[in-house]
Amino acid sequence: MNTRQQSKLIYSWYGKPMSSDRKLRTTQYKGIIITSESSRTETCIQLGDFILVEGVNADRPYVAQLLDLYEDGAQHKRAVVQWFCHIGEIPQNKRKLLKREISSQEVFFDQVLGYDTDIDAQTIIKSIMVIPLHPGEELPITLNKEQTFYVKQSWDGKCFKALSPDTFSKLKAKKKKGSTPDSSEPFIPSDILTPLKKETESVVQSATKPKNAESKHSVSKSSLAKERQSQRAVNDIKTPTARKKLELSSPTRSKGRLLGSEVLDLLDDDRDAIAPLESAATKRKVTFTSDILGSPPKIPCSNDKSKSVSDTAEPCQRFSDTIRLSPYPKAKDFSEKAKNLHVEDDIISLVGHQKPGTQSPVLTPRSRRTCAQRTSALIAQHISVLNQEDDLSSSDSSYSSSSEEEEEEEDVPCTPEKKTKSSRIFSTPKSSSKSSVHTPAKTPKKTPLPGTPKTPRNATPEIPRRSHAAQKPASVLEEARLRLHVSAVPESLPCREEEFQDIYNFVESKLIDGTGGCMYISGVPGTGKTATVHEVIRCLQQAAENDELPPFQLVEINGMKLTDPHQAYVQILELLTGQKVTATHAAVLLAKLFNTPGPKRKTTVLIVDELDLLWTRKQNVMYNLFDWPTQKHSKLIILAIANTMDLPERIMMNRVASRLGLTRMAFQPYTYKQLQHIISSRLKDVKAFEEDAIQLVSRKQYIPRAGGMTARVVIMHSDKMSGFSSVWHNVAALSGDARRCLDICRRATEICEFAEPKRSPEIVGMAHVTEAIDEMFSSPYINAIRNASLHEQIFLKAILAEFRRAGVEEATVQQVYHQHMALCRIEGMQRPTVSEMMAICSRLGASRLLLLEASNKYLHMRVRLNLSQDDVMYALREE
Amino acid sequence: MKSAMSKRKLKDTCGASAECISQVQKILRERFCHRPSATGKLFGIEFQYRHLLELLKRTTLHGESNSALIVGPRGSGKTTLLNHVLKDLREMKQVRGNLLEVHLNGLLQTSDKVALKEITRQLQLENVVGDKVFGSFAETLAFLLEALRKGDRTSSCPVLFVLDEFDLFVHHKNQTLLYNLFDISQSAQTPVTIIGLTCRQDILELLEKRVKSRFSHRQIYLMNSFDFKQYIKIFKEQLSLPAEFPDEPFAQKWNDNIQHLSEDKIVQDVLQNLFHHTKDLRSLYFLLMLAVSAVTVHHPLLTAADLQEASRQHSTDSKANIVHGLSVLEICLIIAMKHLNDVYDGEPFNFQMVYNEFQKFIQRKAHSMYNFEKPVVMKAFEHLLQLELVKPLERPSARAQREYLLMRLLLDNTQIMDALQVYPNCPTDVKQWAASSLSWL
Predict the structure, then answer these.
(1) Which of A40, A298, B188, B266 has a Cα-to-Cα distance from B90 of 20 to 30 A?
(2) B73–A784: do the CB atoms touch at under 8 Å?
(3) Alpha-carbon torsion angle B74, B77, B81, B84, nearest 10
(4) Cα A277 → chain centroid
(5) How far apart are CA A626 and CA A657, in angstroms?
(6) A833: nearest CB among B135, B221, B317
(7) Which residues of A touch B407 (CB under 8 A)?
(8) Mind listing the domains of chain A with CATH numbers?
(9) B132 to chain A: nearest residue by CA?
(10) Do B126 and A525 make contact, defined as CB atoms within 8 angstroms?
(11) Which helix (H) or strand (E) holds B382?
């Protein structure tokens, strides 16, 4: 949305350069004007204003305060800002420190070091309000969630602090300054007075006629859009803002500064006055927050274009109507000056202010829109109210009714209102909140609300809790088993110290430099690749928390956990920003994110597990992944994990492999000593295994490399149970896989427990381990053949005989059948029928002792053995 | 002798009523047909039973994640074993309501997408509305993984995944489902236990290396490892009537009879023969089913002859049965093909060759056989083709003439000779011709 809008915006400096630095060749300005081409409206943002800045997530722009504006040597418009951060930008684990619910309207004064405060001025979206609050205060309720933020605490990356009085006053001062009108003298009273009547109007409306909701909504929808068109609508909500509108039209600053302190006091007052509202407000807060989910701030923006024309036109007309019907003939003069709406409005009301009158009952804003007469009546009525209550000290209503943002264009709500009106004021939020409840239902854009059944996106998945508590391990063996489970997280990763250090150094250096890079990690399964990487990340996070390293964001994807390689984009984007979009859109967004310099961007560490699964024919997923880190501004570190060492050479195109770079690391399979060490360190003080037993497990898991004859002998020695080829089967099944090793140990404890349930000194010995290994890795074929029925065995023998006769390791059933009958004759047995033979054959085929062709060939079906002839002979002979 | 014996029996048991017999039929048929139910008994797999029970108990009580495969040939009682364990597990006090079960079958969940939807449905997670699961494949996967990731060992309810026909899941793309399930079982997430049932002995070789590494390599083998004595015992137990049978004297008589049968030489021979062919208990049940069907009011007790008859039916050759119903002309064609097979050592033949061979026979033995026209012979040949006694080597195409299409005979010589032995009213010349192609010399 923003990108589209941005293309139509022109940024230009406001006023003359204030100062220029010749050496740096920069010139400083005090404001920037954003002109929207489409609607030909201008927004002026000045130093000290609070602004929204485009961020990673289009739905969640950053909040900042504009500190400086300058044009650098290359004629780029730059801005220096003080950041504020949303709750969403604070790491999950740190949020707990707050110990309270955070409204989405609350921001934190950002004191984290390392964020770039120098941004491109073109990323400024618009200006907003940020109001400092004391820690104890509740957030006031306002409708205008997108434009008002509150700051209570500061955040320095480690902890939250209350705003220091200095900062607080500075923020306040800034706000005041920003909102102080720079208007020339004759306008000041009008400026202050006018809003009062308008304000009262809105208060009355909302208090007495909640049905207004709809019409209010209709206006509020376009509010944001208007804001960007009209330079005066920038700071619309509050008393001070209204004055600022004048400031823009008359840019002398002297007066405004003087007034500032008063206004601030007023503001403080009205916060206090709102305090009693809290109880009533708390309930409503819930609806607010849910609202936010459903209505991203971008929605109003999107309305911008469509609404702009009518919106600009409308006030003009309305205004002229007002003037025509106002009781003062002088008003007519203003009707011609339709262009300068707000100034005129103010002047009119200044005039109207002199007219005494009585307060008349309510009118809906809608009717006001359609019927000009009513509008004028309303204005008249408010003028009368103004006359009655001339007290400037209270700005309560202005504050609370700031929710009535929809009034912003025609009525400037800067109301110093009388305190006696407080009863009405209290009712204001009620109605406004009501309207906010109605709002989503009426806005078609907001359909994906969390509650709707068709969209399970926001559902929180959870497995039900167990009804009984899990039992604690009762015996030594159970304790050992718990520790030996692969899922148990060890305190340290023994035997991977070197690899750990290498990866740590790599990521650390990139983090410190603020650059990007790739590292490719390979190794056979179960060698601790993922575990080591996780351990590295954990340590880095620890270091980042202790402020030894710049903070970073972790994103982890696993090729095996994706349904399609392109889903990688979706997952990365979701983990990064929380957006859920389609794969193609996600790719675009990510490319934009990593290829363009963004403000306030942390380094991203991306772990890509099972990289080979991301392979596509065009390899565009891999290409993009490895291309991003090479971009200048990406700040992306990729740790890619896969099994094969030569993956880049084997499956990647040259351009992909080249981007992956040469930073590679291979995890060697564990040696038996290392495996032994791993088991011992896991068991630690739990004495459940004999030393020899551990050694046996480790040795069994170790693939002997060239010259590892001793290990081979050990394996053959203990594999008494099966034939030679099955021994080799076993060796193939084994590897330096730590998972395997732990599983064997776990099984051994079970066998030990199973065998001797009563004996007190339970300790796993050699026998148990051997049994476990036999059970897990003995070739099942031998056993299956021995337990087959007699005719099945004869059939296998017949196959062997047929193979020997033909000299080919393949035969048809018919040939085997003849051999079978011959064997039956020798054994003196009844020969089976062909049907029985086929049944035998398909049974052996189902358990894959035989490999069969499709069975429709019947007698001509070809048969092969799925294991070696030696194994079959070995299995059959020993009976 | 058979009829005399049954008459005597009839006299003995004229008290047995029709209801009684139908009751017997009902009990026994239920026993033979609904095998995978947990009501039957387990034979010879007590060790495996204890192993599996311990495994699942640890999952439910301690929240320990596990994975195991139950491997055994068809009919070896894999499902029965699992059902028994689950039934006993559900009866335990600490376990009740503490285990979520997800049952998948490789024949039903033919892709990971379907399987994931089924899992979400069975777990009744939040994106299930009614019976439908919303969201795309990717969303469902992410959703499910998220759900399982949130749990931990001590607080989440353990989930048991039963994957029937496990070997079919192996063929899913990338083995995504298996990888994820096994990965969860090997990481500190919601405790899960994955039990796979398969009849393939080479199942581990089918797993992808990463999937294999995550599998705990626990395999429970069911091998039908009983001997003939136990087989007889199973036979006896399966046929015996339960103690709670309404008509007690009849049940007593029936059970006594079964006891006698199990010691009978003829019965033992029948059983021995079957045992030699297959140890699969389903075949035994099928045999007994055939035998029990012979029990009627007039023939209330099972006899050895019944079993013999059942065994004969059970083991008859299907193709030889078809040959019985053929016409003499068709038989002659088959004999001609047999000779062609002998002469050309199993090389394929076509109709013309068969016809020529048949003509040779007719010319020599013209007196015993009517000389059929060629189209008639062709018709007979096509009938054989339809019965799948002959099979073309390749699909018949429009261009090739039917007479010259290459064929193979799907009968073995022994089958042909056996069939001829029992073929009624077979001309002697044909029989002689069948015995030797040179009989005219």
Answers:
(1) B188
(2) yes
(3) 130
(4) 34
(5) 9
(6) B317
(7) none
(8) 9-175 (2.30.30.490), 474-495+670-705+731-776 (1.10.8.60), 497-660 (3.40.50.300), 781-876 (1.10.10.10)
(9) A454
(10) no
(11) helix B374-386
Name which of A468, A564, A834 is nearest B415 (Cβ-Cβ).
A834
Instruction: Report chain A's mean pLDDT, rounded to a whole number.
Output: 67
Any bridge partners for residue A71, and if so which?
Answer: A27, A77
Within chain A, which residues score under 70 in pLDDT? Answer: 1-8, 24, 39-40, 56-59, 91-93, 113-115, 139, 141-146, 157-158, 173-462, 599, 700-735, 756-762, 878-879
Place of tokens 């002229």: A320
Q: Which segments of chain B belong to CATH 1.10.10.2450?
A: 320-435
3-state DSSP: chain A helix, strand, coil percent, rounded to 5?
55, 15, 30
Yes or no: say if A220 and A158 are a contact pair by the CB < 8 Å rule: no
Contact partners, residue A178, CB within 8 Å, separation at least 6: A46, A48, A49, A50, A235, A240, A244
Q: What is the ipTM of this complex?
A: 0.90
| Cβ within 8 Å, pair B218-A776 | yes
Q: Among B89, B217, B319, B337, which would you mutate to test the A interface (most chain A Cβ atoms within 10 Å of its Cβ)?
A: B217
Q: How far apart are CA A683 and CA A173, in angstroms?
A: 63
Give the mutation candidate from A563, A611, A729, A817 for the B interface (greatest B CB count, under 10 A).
A563
Q: For residue A84, give the nearest of A59, A63, A101 by alpha carbon.
A: A63
Look at A739 and B137 and tell me if their CB atoms are within 8 Å: no
Out of A466, A489, A814, name the one closest to residue B412 (CB).
Answer: A814
Are the Cβ atoms of B159 and A463 closer than 8 angstroms? Answer: yes
Q: Does A531 lie at the interface with B, CB-CB under 8 angstroms? A: no
Contacts of B214 in chain A (CB under 8 A): 525, 739
Q: What is the pLDDT of residues A832-852, one digit of tens each?
A: 889 999 999 999 999 889 999
Q: Does A828 touch chain B (CB under 8 A)?
A: no
Residue spans of alpha helices (H) in A326-415: 331-335, 341-352, 365-370, 372-388, 396-400
| Contacting residues of A for B317, CB less than 8 Å apart | 833-836
Question: Measured between CB atoms, does A826 come within 8 Å of chain B?
Answer: no
Nearest CA in chain B to A456: B127
CB contact under 8 A, A858 and B410: yes
Nearest to B141 among A561, A839, A860 (CB): A561
Sequence-separated (6 or more) residues with CB below 8 Å from residue B166: B69, B106, B196, B197, B198, B203
Q: Which residue of B has its CA nearest to A615?
A: B174
Model confidence at B37, in pLDDT bands (50, 70, 90)? low
**Predicted pLDDT of residue A366:** 43
Q: In whole angstroms, what is the distance from residue A474 CA to residue A456 CA?
A: 42
Residue found by looking up tokens 């006359």 in the block: A387
Residue A778 contacts residue A722 (beta carbons within 8 Å): yes
| CA quadruple B11, B13, B18, B22: dihedral sign | negative
| B314-366 pLDDT, tens digit each | 888 888 888 888 898 999 999 999 999 888 888 899 899 999 988 888 888 76
Whole-model pTM: value is 0.69
**How many beta-carbon pairs under 8 angstroms link A with B?**
230
Does the beta-carbon distance from A453 to B100 stay under 8 Å? no
Ranges for all domains in chain B classified under CATH 3.40.50.300 = 45-221
CATH of the domain spanning B320-435, picked from 1.10.1200.10, 1.10.8.60, 3.20.20.100, 1.10.10.2450 = 1.10.10.2450
Partner-chain residue, chosen from B142, B174, B221, that has the shortest CB–CB distance to A560: B174
Superfamily of domain B45-221: P-loop containing nucleotide triphosphate hydrolases (3.40.50.300)
Token pair recorded at residue A561: 């956990």
**First vs last Cα of chain A: how many Å apart?**
79
